[in-house]
Specification:
This protein is mainly α and 267 residues long. It is built from ten helices and two strands; from the N terminus they run ααααββαααααα. Strands 1-2 form a two-stranded antiparallel ribbon. Keywords: DNA-binding, Transcription, Transcription regulation.
Length: 267
């Protein structure tokens, strides 16, 4: 469920690939059509790789907020050409992770109290609706996804420590899996795309707090997640959505006070 792509570039890629495939049907194997298709596929693959690498670096905090993203430096760092990097930066701009301004070029999007509050409030609004739909539509497979993802989250939470970057990355992945399992029966691809985009925006604020748990207000996060899961599995829409909304409200408060992630007043 990692895709967030309601962007024009993905649609263009689809039709370009389809066009190359169609034109190649009337040409012999190994002819110009096949070569063009192979080149198109390779270019797309390089763009996807550049997008994935940059996205990860921004979300993990390897690139600081408002840090310039210069093509020459990125090419040296990742070993990717200018064209795939431009494509990746354009996609990241559409996702809200990068900004682009005339004469200033690309920069990592800033963090701010206003953006944090807006992101978490919007996320709660959208996900409670998706959870409500999932409770009404969910089947046995949906219930199994919730149970298994909650179990995996608990196991990873026990294994993760502030001095273990790999385990913290795995913890965030398990956390994402659980929240997406909750809403996975909504029946709306658009909702899923919006939820993914909002989740990515919130992770930038969450990552520093994962490695500084002792400096953040005490919360029994597994109990909160367990209560949401129990209410959802009991098909109690009112309680489940209320608990999810409260979970995000507390998270927003915690992140706004986290000393590891000082936030500005404006975006």
């Amino acid at each position: 469920m990692e895709s967030t792509d309601f962007r024009k570039s993905c649609i263009l890629d689809f039709f370009l690939a389809a066009g190359e495939k169609g034109r190649g049907r009337d040409r012999p194997p190994g002819g110009p059509g096949e070569g063009a298709a192979r080149m198109s596929k390779t270019a797309k693959s390089m763009g996807e790789q550049a997008h994935a690498m940059l996205r990860h670096q921004i979300i993990s905090g390897a690139f600081a907020p408002e840090q310039p993203l210069r093509l020459a430096q990125l090419q040296e760092r990742f070993g990717v050409g200018f064209s795939p990097l431009r494509e990746a930066l354009t996609r990241l701009t559409a996702e809200g992770l990068v900004t682009s301004e005339p004469m200033r070029g690309f920069r990592v999007a800033p963090l701010s109290q206003e953006d944090l509050r807006d992101t978490m409030e919007t996320r709660a609004f959208v996900e409670t609706e998706a959870l409500r739909r999932s409770i009404r539509r969910g089947d046995d497979d949906w219930e199994a996804r919730i149970v298994s993802s909650l179990h995996a989250l608990g196991r990873q939470f026990e294994r993760s420590g502030p001095d273990q970057p790999e385990s913290l990355a795995a913890l965030e992945e398990r956390h994402r899996d659980f929240h997406f399992a909750l809403v996975s029966a909504s029946g709306s691809r658009r909702l899923e795309q919006i939820i993914d985009s909002l989740y990515v925006g919130s992770v930038r604020y969450r990552m520093p707090s994962l490695s500084n748990r002792q400096s953040t207000p005490a919360r029994d996060l597994m109990a909160e997640h367990g209560a949401i899961a129990d209410a959802a599995l009991a098909r109690d829409e009112a309680l489940a959505t209320c608990l999810l909304d409260e979970h995000y409200r507390l998270t927003a408060e915690m992140l706004s006070m986290a000393p590891a992630a000082p936030l500005g007043r404006t975006g």
